[in-house]
Amino acid sequence: ETGVTQSPTHLIKTRGQQVTLRCSSQSGHNTVSWYQQALGQGPQFIFQYYREEENGRGNFPPRFSGLQFPNYSSELNVNALELDDSALYLCASTDVRGGRGNEQFFGPGTRLTVL
Amino acid sequence: AQSVTQLDSQVPVFEEAPVELRCNYSSSVSVYLFWYVQYPNQGLQLLLKYLSGSTLVKGINGFEAEFNKSQTSFHLRKPSVHISDTAEYFCAVGDNNAGNMLTFGGGTRLMVKP
Q1: Torsions phi, psi for B98 (to 5 deg)
Q2: CB of B34 within 8 A of CB of A33?
Q3: What is the rounded CA–CA span in Å between residue A58 and residue A37?
Q4: B47-51 — which CB contacts under 8 Å span 24+ positions?
Q5: CA distance linking residue B21 with residue B36, whole number of Å
Q6: With contacts defined as CB-CB under 8 Å, which chain A residues touch B36?
Q7: Which among A89, A39, A40 is positioned nearest to B9, based on CA atoms?
Q8: Residues 9 to 38 of B: which have CB under 8 A from any A CB?
Q9: Do B106 and A41 lie within an 8 Å CB cutoff?
Q10: In chain B, which residue's Cα lies nearest the Cα of A95?
């Protein structure tokens, strides 16, 4: 059983650019969530996808968008990057058929630096 | 809306000593509670979770936590820590209305000294 993987591990962009981060969910998981973890802070929920549709969203602007593919891999896209977007971006997958409160399995994250 | 407060940003402790990491939450509905650990340059690993039932929850690596509804707390404890427990610990809350969305606290850095 493979775990959650993310790519790339590190990324440097400049302000105003666009970025795409990728996540491959754990085998058999049908739900993926994305979190932003700024330095020295706890993760903040960005959004969640279930069956290729957005299933919940945190307090993030529309320039944060996502996709989930039939094989349950997903992408996080951020347009018009700002300096404050510099953070560790975590992907987490779960199988909602296990019920509410089912464990979310986190990937190692992508460290994004915006200059 | 939910919120999670981890009262200590850093907790230094000597090896083999007991430790308690504090977590308080606020929510208007029934909640699920989690503790995650994050080692440097890694993602989050689940230590333990409370969904319902017994308020004392045992997790991996000798950690346990007690859910106290009246005090809205979910403190994490370990009777004897090891150097390898040095990491960042996050308390998180979810609820029936939020699907699998988790609200995290700001984290507590546990520093175990020899």
Answers
A1: -110, 15
A2: no
A3: 13
A4: B47/B76, B47/B89, B48/B76, B49/A101, B49/A103, B50/B74, B51/A101
A5: 12
A6: 106
A7: A40
A8: 32, 36
A9: yes
A10: B100
Kindly identify which residue of chain A lies nearest to residue B41, measuring between CA atoms: A108
Find the length of chain A. Answer: 115
**Residues of A whose CB is below 8 A from B102:** 33, 35, 43, 45, 104
Q: Which two structure tokens, joined as six digits, stand for A90?
A: 């975590």
A89 strand-pairing partners: A36, A110
Which of B84, B77, B65, B90 has the alpha carbon at shortest distance from B15? Answer: B84
Give the amino acid at A66.
G
Q: How does pLDDT run along chain B (114 residues), one tens digit per residue?
A: 789 999 999 999 999 999 999 999 998 777 889 999 999 878 899 999 998 888 899 999 999 999 999 999 999 999 999 999 999 999 999 876 656 688 999 999 999 999
Nearest chain A alpha carbon to B44: A106
- End-to-end CA separation in angstroms for chain B: 41
Measured between beta carbons, which residues in chain B are less than 8 angstroms from residue A109? 42-43
CA neighbours closer than 13 Å in the CB half-sphere of residue A74? 29
CB of A88 within 8 A of CB of A37? yes
